[in-house]
């Protein structure tokens, strides 16, 4: 069975939901603790949402230097699947595993809504089960979700097919080029602001589109193992 | 003990929503024509003598943690003695 590690930092909120999403899609969630440089032999890692270290300094800036992250970064460079959700996306940018940064929403308020997204590429280990151009609905909830990067970086992301998700409808937070999520050049590291782990059951969400993230990585790892 | 000050500012091309909100509030309070950009100031007390090596370490710390150079710039300067003596007052 696919073992997926879920990191808990002080201030993480959505580790339990991420573990539940992994379990519901046939994987085995493995709890990882921020102060232990031990990934317990997991096949993939999720950095969940929340407010690690109280968002002190900058969102994700302190979590990025926690002991567990040294291992996460090392394994990600070797190709291990790594998903950063919301605060996890902020950590990935602070760790320079993904380019750019997340700053305060241009509307200056916290946003919490069901958000339409367009899947721009399924050429990542976390989105292979989607169809390019597919429109999905995923919960969005953040205060600092505005993606920014210099023009050259944005051009490169678009040119290399590394923009994974775009907001559809009105841009909720002023993100450059409506970007909601991106990947690295290898397609094993994905970061996005919306929360797929909240869209896995009909009883709590208007869509279960989030399941496909976890099914994508499960299928990828099963194929890699066989 | 020497004090070093690191100041971090959002890059000019990065919209600063906090500064924008403060600018708006000032105008409403009857202080028009004041455009604010909001940054951060770190006052760092350095143990021992402030050698060039120690100052270089503070620079490295600013580059690595205190600022995110994707979106921010930083400056490092040694506080003058009068400032350092003020302490936390």
Summarize this structure as a short list of keywords or feature phrases.
heterodimer; A: 226 residues; 9-stranded mixed β-sheet; B: 89 residues; alpha+beta; Mth169, Chain: A; 3-stranded antiparallel β-sheet; 3 helices; 3 strands; 26% strand
Explain what the structure shows.
The complex is a heterodimer of chains A (226) and B (89). By secondary structure, chain A is of the alpha/beta class. Chain A has a single domain, classed as Class I glutamine amidotransferase (GATase) domain (Rossmann fold). In chain A, 23% of the residues lie in helices and 25% in strands. Chain A has helices at 15-24, 67-77, 87-94, 151-159, 211-225, and strands spanning 3-8, 28-33, 44-47, 82-85, 101-103, 111-119, 135-142, 146-148, 163-167, 179-183, 189-192. In chain A, the strands form two sheets. Chain A has a nine-stranded mixed β-sheet, sandwiched between helices. In chain A, strand 3 (44-47), helix 2 and strand 4 form a beta-alpha-beta unit. The radius of gyration of chain A is 16 Å and the shape is globular. A three-stranded antiparallel β-sheet of chain B has the order 2-1-3. Chain B has a single domain (2-86), classed as Phosphoribosylformylglycinamidine synthase subunit PurS (Mth169, Chain: A, 2-Layer Sandwich), CATH 3.30.1280.10. Chain B has helices at 17-28, 52-66, 81-86; strands at 2-10, 40-46, 72-78. Chain B is an alpha+beta fold and 89 residues long. Chain B is built from three helices and three strands; from the N terminus they run E-H-E-H-E-H. The A-B interface holds A 57-58, 61-62, 65, 93-94, 99-101, 103-106, 108, 148-149, 174 and B 10, 14-15, 17-18, 20-21, 65-66, 68, 70-71.
